[in-house]
Structure formats: structure tokens, C-alpha cells
Amino acid sequence: MKRKFDAENALNIEEKLSCEECRARLAIIDKMIDNGGVVCLDEVESIPSDMMKSLAEKKVISVCEGKVIYAYPVSGLKIMHNVKLHKGDSFYAMCAVDSLGAAFTLGKDVTIDSRCAVCGEPIHIEIRDGNLSHILRRDSVSPTWI
Asked: Is 83 within 8 Å of 32 (Cβ atoms)?
């Protein structure tokens, strides 16, 4: 069944959040990157539970069995979109678009290593100073990943 495009859901995530929620989201993201994966709720206990509930209801984070599994754009699970930050930290992004958007969410240069969802070929992308600076892909004919 085809779903119609819903512009309301296409908003930038930060447009859905208060300033406090934006700061909380970034704190969770930082903790996930530091941990290299999921974050236990007790590791972010400084964030009020009502704010965590609001972030979950707005689908900005996902909490399962006392752990934050994702905080857009960061996935606590190892999936194919690996994002490396300039200082050497790395994380997995929820999807290809989120890996590209991570440079802007975090305000940092990123290197993305992933695979084409269709053919499985490796893809390497670098974003520097907010600009796409390098793309390496064997098959440049079909733009399936970007």
C-alpha cells in the first residue's frame, strides 16, 4: 500500500523540539558516541524522565528495556552506515540520509563508509566544512545510496 507524503513528518527534527529537548538529544548522542553504542537510562539520569518521554513520543529517541537504542541520527546498533568524526570517534547512523545529515547535526566533518543497498559495493563519502568533498564508489552509474 502506498503512503502519501506527509510534509509534517518531513520537518527537521529540531523543529519539533524545545531548546531544552535539543540539548538533551545532543547530550544523549554524545553519550552514545562515547559509549560506542546504546546508552543505559541511568547514564543519562540528569535528563528528566518527562523530557525522555517527550523525546520518545516525538520519535527522536527509542528506548527499549532501559536503554536508548537510537537518538537520531545515531544508532546504538551496528548497521551498515558507519560515520567517523574528525577526532577518531565513530558511530552508526540510522540510514544513509542520517549519515549525511550527521555532519550538520553535530557541526563536524565526517567520513562515511557504507555499502550500496542494491549492489553491496562499498561507498566512501567525506563531508568537510559542510561540503561534500569526496565520494568513492566503483559503480558511479546508479545513484542508489546518495
From this structure: no
Return the pLDDT at 87: 81
For 76-95, give the DSSP string.
SS--S-EEEETTS-EEEESS
Residues 6+ apart with CB under 8 A from 111: 83, 84, 124, 125, 126, 127
- Whether the link from the prior residue into 73 is cis, omega within 30° of 0, is yes
Residue 73: all three cell numbers together:
541520527
Please give the torsion angle defined by the CA atoms of residues 30, 110, 89 and 112, in that order, rounded to the nearest 10 degrees. Answer: 110
Rounded-to-integer distance, Cα 71 and Cα 26, Å: 8
Report which DSSP code applies to 108. S
| pLDDT tens-digit series, residues 64-85 | 999 999 999 999 999 999 999 9
Please state the pTM of the whole predicted model. Answer: 0.81
